[in-house]
């Protein structure tokens, strides 16, 4: 299965977005237990340029992350907040993220 293929209920994503776009969504939307980072909260190590300040020493969960179709869905959005909001919508996690804050 192609990890960049959108689920059947979403329109196809661009074939051009097949690698990390440095959009920051993966460092802000999901919870990262190894860093004590809650769902929907930006990682303290994510800089204003959406790059990781501890990239060389990042935990395994971050090191093993691979871009997929979600990147093509959120990367074109203009702000990190919009990307996080869309990420949470895609997974139906808006209410859980509010509760985690």
What does this structure look like?
This protein is mostly helical and 101 residues long. Helices cover 28% and strands 0% of the residues. It contains four helices and no strands. The protein is globular. The model has no long low-confidence stretch (mean pLDDT 87).
Shape: globular
Rounded radius of gyration (Å): 13 Å
Task: Detail the poorly predicted runs.
Answer: none
- The total strand number stands at 0
Helix share of residues? 25-40%
Through-space gap between termini = 35 Å
Given the structure, what is the number of helices? 4
Concise structural overview:
With 101 residues, this protein is an all-alpha fold. It has 4 helices and no strands.
Write the layout of secondary structure elements.
Elements: H1 60-63, H2 69-74, H3 80-90, H4 94-100
Keywords:
28% helix; 4 helices; 101 residues; globular; mainly alpha
């Amino acid at each position: 299965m192609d990890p960049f293929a959108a689920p059947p209920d979403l329109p196809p994503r661009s074939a051009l977005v097949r690698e990390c776009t440095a959009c920051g969504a993966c460092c802000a939307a999901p919870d990262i237990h190894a860093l004590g980072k809650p769902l929907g909260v930006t990682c303290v190590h994510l800089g204003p340029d959406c790059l990781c300040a501890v990239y060389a020493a990042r935990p395994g969960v971050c090191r093993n992350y691979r871009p997929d179709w979600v990147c093509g869905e959120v990367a074109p959005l203009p702000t990190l907040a919009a990307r996080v909001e869309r990420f949470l919508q895609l997974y139906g996690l808006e209410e859980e993220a509010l509760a985690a804050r």
